[in-house]
Amino acid sequence: MTPVLSSLEPVRRSRAIQRAISSRIQRTGDFILRKLAQKQSLLSTASNEHTSCPAPLVVGINGAQGSGKTTLVRGLVAFLQERNISTVGFSLDDIYLTQREQLALAKAHRDNPLLQFRGQAGTHDVGLGHKTLTDLLRNSSAVSIPAYDKSLNGGYGDRVPQSEWQMTASPVDVVLFEGWSLGFRALDDREFARFIDMVRRKPDGSVLCKHSRKYSDQNLREINENLEPYERLLYPLIDAWIYMRVSDVDVVYRWRKEQEDELAATGRPSLSDKQLEDFVTRFLPAYEMALDKLDRQGFVSSGLLPAPDTLRIHLDLERNVVAWDHKF
Q: What total number of domains does the chain contain?
């Protein structure tokens, strides 16, 4: 009997994962429904609101790489559309700079390893993101949603031609906008000085800010300053947030390693351990800079909706939800 029971274990594990995902979608979906009702109520009573197609609810979704953002967005789109709520989902990744623009950025900042490849603040077309969200909020006609293909140019990626972008069917009720660094906020001068002080302290066995130590103060300052247009042009267009919080950013490497192992097992191209380490470590300084302020001060939003405007999902190292709470 033991082999039979053992053979059933993967099935049980798969079913448990599916139940956990369904529960996460249900709870985040209920949060979105409440916020949508609040926004629709506010717009219906506003004296200057006369359109039959009110602005959609824009929800920002932040979560570490590998935390399950794409799965969550896919599930939420289905959850909401089953309730006749027109929903569009896209990613911060979809507004990366074109390859030509990224190469020019890398050349202009050749002394900054953090800007030699897509990912960090400064490697997105924030203007394109602002235009896309603004067009969606007008809700008066179909909108083209940008798309990016990471497999192009030998893995360096490029934006998909506009003729191939997805067109929305107007009107839209909910916009889901996700990204690993979406919502990260720039540190002010005093905050940045404190951060650099922690980075440059003599090694004492502490792992605090360990990933930022290999970069210069100027490298880190540029990434911090690059967050300003995101906070000014994108975040005020977002009404509510879902925050998939992790307590240890080192888990990002582990989760990406799992994804690469799955690719290798199916015969598809994957990164070596050395390539993966090089890839992931370029992102981790941004987490070290941003997460403390995000936990203390929360996200920037449109300010239209009553508090709380953020649903936090606390994840353990296995992506299990260990707690839910609301903030700000």
A: 1
